[in-house]
Design a protein that fits this description.
Chain lengths: 110, 115
């Protein structure tokens, strides 16, 4: 199957909090796991994870992949109101298709 | 980075009419483009894979006669929603596979409203 499952589906935090978003996937034709941030329009790329156990960081955001347990997490530390968005993970398969999860809607309150 | 544009950014049409959405890669050639649909509060659903010079590959449940895809050049793919109905109202997003084939670049999306 092509399932990509994200949790939680929505999350409300206050500025300064740390959040962890989860993504589990099925392994069929797996190539990489990608994270995107979507605000009003189309998704913007955050991370691509191909190897297990190697953390990728960009500022306050970081992500890691566990290919044995078939999941990935996205961490955001010291959250800001500008982090409010829908965070999507997607499984990228060998044919180039992206299969998206349902997304986690993050709301950061001042 | 690579830029993908879509036109129009939003469109309102009457039920029964057809609407064409364009997706262009502005500074690179894209042999493969993808079309997604996103309903409110839902994730992106892949509709079809568009390859330059060949027929598109549609995902299960997507009607190829209703959603016509043409990828006539290395920088342009079009999606035509034929005989649109209110249930086709959605956010349509394209993406283009970059020259190194390990990145996809998304267009800004087209919001279609069918009245």
């Amino acid at each position: 199957e092509d399932k990509v499952v994200q949790s939680p589906l929505s999350l409300v935090v206050h500025e300064g909090d740390t959040v962890t978003l989860n993504c589990s996937y099925e392994v069929t034709n797996f190539r990489s796991l990608l994270w995107y941030k979507q605000e009003k329009k189309a998704p913007t790329f955050l991370f691509m994870l191909t190897s297990s156990g190697i953390e990728k960081k960009s500022g306050r955001l970081s992500s890691i992949l566990d290919k044995k347990e078939l999941f990935s997490i996205l961490n955001i530390t010291a959250t800001q109101t500008g982090d409010s968005a829908i965070y999507l993970c997607a499984r990228w398969d060998q044919g180039g298709k992206l299969i998206f999860g349902q997304g986690t809607e993050l709301s950061v309150k001042p | 980075g690579a830029v993908v544009s879509q036109h129009p950014s939003w469109v309102i049409c009457k039920s029964g009419t057809s609407v064409k959405i364009e997706c262009r890669s502005l500074d690179f050639q894209a042999t493969t483009m993808f079309w997604y649909r996103q309903f409110p509060k839902q994730s992106l659903m892949l509709m079809a894979t568009s390859n330059e010079g060949s027929k598109a590959t549609y995902e299960q449940g997507v009607e190829k006669d209703k959603f016509l895809i043409n990828h006539a050049s290395l920088t342009l793919s079009t999606l035509t929603v034929t005989s649109a109905h209110p249930e086709d109202s959605s956010f349509y997003i394209c993406s283009a596979m970059g020259p190194h084939s390990y990145e996809q670049y998304f267009g800004p999306g087209t919001r279609l409203t069918v009245t």
